[in-house]
Amino acid sequence: MNSAAPTLAKPQVQGFFDKTTWTVTYVVHNGPGSDCAIIDSVLDYDPKSGRTRTIAADKVIAFVKAHQLTTQWILETHAHADHLSAAPYLKKHLGGQIAIGDQITRVQKVFKGIFNLEPEFKQDGSQFDVLLKDDEAFQIGELTAKVLAVPGHTPACVAYQVGDAVFVGDTLFMPDVGTARCDFPGGDAKTLYASTRKLLALPAQTRLFMCHDYPPTDRPIAFETTVAEQRAKNIHVHDGVSEAQFVEMRTKRDATLEMPVLILPAVQINIRAGEMPPKEANGIAYAKIPLNAL
Q1: What is the domain-level CATH number for residue 101?
Q2: Positions in the chain short of pLDDT 70
Q3: If both were cysteines, with which of 19, 41, 200, 267 could 86 make a disulfide (CB 3.0 to 4.6 Å apart)?
Q4: Into how many domains does the chain fold?
């Protein structure tokens, strides 16, 4: 690890859209035969049966192998509430280090209490191979990546800047969708506004890659935009929107939103770096459902 500024390289980016969770997983690399990072992977999960599958992750594995890429990193932008991470499965099949922003410890502390997790559950982020600090630089082969802390949706949200590409997590959506909600534990609309301005202060042609897309019914799925397009057209944070206006809008809007379908299983698994809870005496792992707690 080092503190060098990211290069101005133009990395190759392949997105994989999961229509069940509206999530985009990315493979960022420097061409066939290079090192790569996988960002925000998805483990298929059926909430009706509690069964997991690896359809989405297997597509990523097939791409990595077909292009003879070496997986150096499996990155999370935050502990997702809308899908389960496939990070352990990808690591088993492709190698690499699982990493997340170092403020994940704050999220672990909150949700250990909410889920009343086992006493052995550590709140120090040690479930992940690497905890990344704000402004920290790291290498993806010849590509230099940089961590950008963008809290607000959760206290632990980070974006990853790789050359001219930034993977923004849930901080921003496509311009006609807006921004992430801030009503989860530890979320804060004022903080999110500052994070959006941090991203939108980057050079105008910086490519921004969304973690999700929830498109209006009259347009196809899209998950790449630019700083310039966001500043001109984002319905929540275009240039001219004040912090007070954003906080008022976000607070009113969040009050109308339902919880994500998978928030209860997803969060308690994702704060474990995608590992399942410890198996009980009968050999089965269980996800807890806290009643009347969220």
Answers
A1: 3.60.15.10
A2: 1-8
A3: 41
A4: 1
